[in-house]
Amino acid sequence: MPPLNMRLAVLYSRLRVEEKWIFAALDKCGTQYDRLLDGEVQFDVDQPGEWNNYNAVLVRSLSTSRGLYAAQQLNAWGIPTVNSYAVSAACADKAATSAALATAGVPAPRTRLCFSAEAALQAGEELGYPYVLKPVLGSWGRLVNRINDRDAAEAVFEHRETLGTHQHQIYYLQELVRKPGRDIRAFVIGTETPVAIYRTSTHWITNTARGGSASVCPVTPQIHDLCQRAAAAVGGGVLAIDLLEDPERGLLVNEINHTMEFHSTVPLTGVDLPGMIVDFTLRACRTGNAVPLAAGARAGNPHK
Asked: Can you give the pTM of this predicted structure?
């Protein structure tokens, strides 16, 4: 039983099946909590006000921007969030993820980051065709392009330069890994890697949001070790790690998701991910220091 004075909030955008499961898990353990729609809340940056009532906040916003700004403000007040702003920022931006993985020596696809179409054309030639062009911010496989040759690159880059926003002027290129028609999504909850699934498709994008089918993937010691290293590289927490199977180099970390969906995984595997997420968040409530602290900072909420 959680302490009687413990209270948390769940910040969300829409009541998806994942949020329904999380709320059910919270109800089951008797935790006091509030459901907060991110479109209805406000933050007085000078003082936490009613946010001071919460020992921790579980951020489940669909909008990356809303989730990041909320976590940033809450963490500035010393209120733990799952995940923390630092972790969320490292995962939300693919370039930041790549930098963190490279710094930690975690194997990942060869990647190039450029700031002009001319530099990106040269980087693509060096990577070799075909390669993958991704937006640095985005999910569900949207605006991910397979660039088969220079003509395709020039056409896509011209559209980006002419029609895109400032984010599309950042060129994030990755080698196209020769995966066996599938990728692996593994889930990390703290120091555990409780479950993983294969995502299989005849299309080169295997994301289930794009029609890929899910099947059980055994969590081998190799998968567990790599996922824990990847999670540690971005700061740890509640994460989904996307892995690619390269025929020569083995497992590579492709992306890390900080607000993952698991509607396919739970019924397929029977693993209680919602309950595990709630348990992790309650531990953040108890300790008050689930967020990585800057040098000289102290745990807990200084406004309490």
From this structure: 0.91
